[in-house]
Amino acid sequence: MSAPTLREQKKQQTRQVISDAATGLFLRHGFDHVTIAEVAAEAGVSKMTVTNYFPRKEDLVLDLGEDFVSGPARAVAARAPGVSPVEALRDDYLAAVRRRDPVIGFAPEPFARMLTESPVLLARLREFHELREAAVAGVLAEEAGVRSPAEDITPYAVAAQLGGALRVLFGRLVERVLEGADVEEIGAAHEVEAGRVFGLLKG
Questions:
Q1: Model's pTM, two decimal places?
Q2: If residue 68 lies in a helix (H) or strand (E), which one and from where to where?
Q3: In the Cβ-directed half-sphere of 143, how many Cα atoms lie within 13 Å?
Q4: Over the stretch 97-126, which tens digit does the pLDDT of each residue have?
Q5: Distance, CA of 69 to CA of 57 (rounded, Å)
Q6: Which of 26, 47, 65, 124 counts the highest number of beta carbons within 10 A?
Q7: Which pLDDT tens digit goes with each residue over 72-99?
Q8: CA gap 54, 14 in Å, rounded
Q9: DSSP assignment, residue 127?
Q10: Where's the HTH tetR-type domain (predicted)?
Q11: What domains are there in the chain, each with its CATH number?
Q12: In what helix (H) or strand (E) does residue 128 lie, and over which residues does it extend?
């Protein structure tokens, strides 16, 4: 892979400056009480620049949303022959737990609190959960040559089970973060719970 160009590096730096400025404001004042104009002023850029990098205000907080939505579908699609969707997603999720991946919910307690106290962010998270389930369903349906639930509901039912498991695990992990435990303690306990949850699903 070629190294990023100077232009790409500058764009990434600008994106990071905006994200850092927004996060600081949101943590101090709450997501719902900060405007895009205030973020722009804090970052030293125009309001248009902010919206060019982050089309929705929620994207300033949930900037890992693309990975959140597409990650499980990628794991299922890339599984080896003979590996079930449940096994593939379980292994992918447990690997994310072990590396304390913020995509699955590992975050500082103030960030998690800001997230759960904002109705707007919670609504966007619900959308992400739905999009993630739909992405998994799309992969499974394509593998089975199915075009809709009317043709065969199985891929969609499996995706719903997987999506439900991920939704429960995300909520539980955020709860643990809000309880203020040490990240290593959280990770060890959550790994046990994740194994239990995936063990309930049929392969």
A1: 0.87
A2: helix 65-77
A3: 19
A4: 999 999 999 999 999 999 999 999 999 999
A5: 18
A6: 26
A7: 999 999 999 999 999 999 999 999 999 9
A8: 11
A9: H
A10: 12-72
A11: 6-60 (1.10.10.60), 65-199 (1.10.357)
A12: helix 119-144
